[in-house]
Amino acid sequence: MISTASVLRRARRQLHDPSATRWSDDDLLDYLNEGQRQTVIFRPEANAVLIKHDLVAGATQRLPDNCHVLIDVLYNIENGEEGRSVTEVTLPNLDASLLSWRSEPRSDRSVHFARNANTPAVFYVYPPNTGAGTVMLSASAEPEPTTRDGNLTLRNGFESALMHFVCYRCLEEDRESEPSAQLASYHEQQYMKMIGVTLAQQEA
C-alpha cells in the first residue's frame, strides 16, 4: 500500500512549498482524492474489486451503487461454491442468434453475459435470471476518500501519476501567471501520459 503522506510530500517538493505556505494539506488532499476519482474514470481497473453479486429477475442487471463500470463476470456461485464460468458474448451476436432471448425461460445459472458500452454500469445475463442466482464479478468501484494518515485507494502503480495530478490542480489556481500555467500544463500532460490517456481520449 502507498501512503497518502508520501504522495503529498512528493507533491510539495515539486511545488516548492514544503511548509504549506501556499497550499494547505487539506488543499492537496482534496486534489489527491479528485485525482483518484479522475483516474478510475480513465482506468477502471485501477480500483477493481471482486463482488458476489445477487442477480435480479430478468436479463438486465445493474452493478452495486458504489461501482460504475463492469470489468468481467467470472462465474456462478452455486450452493456457496465456485460454479460454472460465465462467458462473454456481444449484444449484436446474441440478438442475431436469439431475437427473443430476453423472454426465454429463466434460470438460476448464468451461461453468458453481455455489456453495453453506453451503459457501463448495466449488463445482461443469458438465460434471464430467476432472481435467485448469484455471480462473482469484477467491477470498478468508486474510490474511497483517503486521509492524510491513510493509504491510496487505487492499486500500486499510480502514485507518480497522482502526484502530478495534485501539482497540476494546485498550479492551475495560478494560471494567470505564465510560469504557473506552463507548469500546470506540464504536470497535466505527465499525469495523462502515466495513466495511458491520449489527447483524443482526454477530449472525448
What is the gyration radius calculated from CA atoms? 22 Å
Structure summary, number of beta strands: 8
Mean pLDDT over the residues: 94
Structural class: alpha+beta
Binned, the helix content reads 25-40%
Please tell me what the overall shape is.
Answer: elongated
- Major β-sheet strand ordering: 1-8-3-4
Distance between the termini: 32 Å
Multimer state: single chain
| Elements, N to C (H/E) | HHEEEEEHEEEHHH
Question: Are there runs of 5+ residues with pLDDT below 50, and where?
Answer: none
In DSSP terms, counting alpha (H) and pi (I) runs of 4 or more, how many helices?
6
User: Mind describing the biggest β-sheet?
Assistant: 4 strands, antiparallel
Question: What percentage of amino acids are in beta strands?
Answer: 25-35%
* Number of domains as seen in the coordinates: 2
InterPro entries: SU10_adaptor (IPR056209)
Please specify the SSE layout and strand pairing.
Layout (H helix, E strand, L loop, with lengths): L3 H12 L9 H18 L5 E7 L3 E5 L4 E12 L2 E5 L1 E2 L2 H7 L14 E4 L6 E8 L4 E8 L17 H14 L5 H17 L4 H5 L1
Structural account:
The chain is an alpha+beta fold and 204 residues long. It has two domains: 4-43 and 158-203; 48-141, no CATH class. It has helices at 4-15, 25-42, 91-97, 159-172, 178-194, 199-203, and strands at residues 48-54, 58-62, 67-78, 81-85, 87-88, 112-115, 122-129, 134-141. The chain has a four-stranded antiparallel β-sheet, with no helix packed on it. A four-stranded mixed β-sheet has the order 2-7-6-5, with no helix packed on it. Helix 1 (4-15) crosses helix 4 (159-172) and helix 4 runs antiparallel to helix 5. The relative contact order is 0.21.
